[in-house]
From TrEMBL:
SUPFAM superfamilies associated with the record: BolA-like
Name of the protein described by the UniProt record: BolA family transcriptional regulator
Pfam families linked: BolA
InterPro entries, sorted: BolA (IPR002634), BolA-like_sf (IPR036065), BolA/IbaG_stress_morph_reg (IPR050961)
Similarity section: Belongs to the BolA/IbaG family.
Length: 79
């Protein structure tokens, strides 16, 4: 799987205001900004992304995914 393929899968499964994906083909890092994260704790945000990837996480097609998740307001705020 390529970074673009993984990015497309996430974007197809949930609305993203901003989405960056990088990695080596097995280990991935994503920065995801989505209005779906409003009112959700970190674990619920990650579970939402994992649900989008479904079986790909279970079959090891996506071996490891680290992510930073933001609401649009969090992303717009100074960091």
């Amino acid at each position: 799987m390529t970074a673009e393929q993984l990015k497309s899968l996430i974007a197809a499964g949930m609305p993203c205001d901003h989405l960056e994906v990088e990695g080596d083909g097995r280990h991935w890092f994503a920065t995801i900004v989505s209005p779906e994260f409003e009112g959700k704790r970190l674990i619920a945000r990650h579970q939402r992304v994992y649900a989008t990837l479904g079986q790909r996480m279970k079959t090891d097609e996506v071996h490891a995914l680290s992510m930073k998740t933001f609401t649009p307001a969090e992303w717009a705020a100074p960091r």
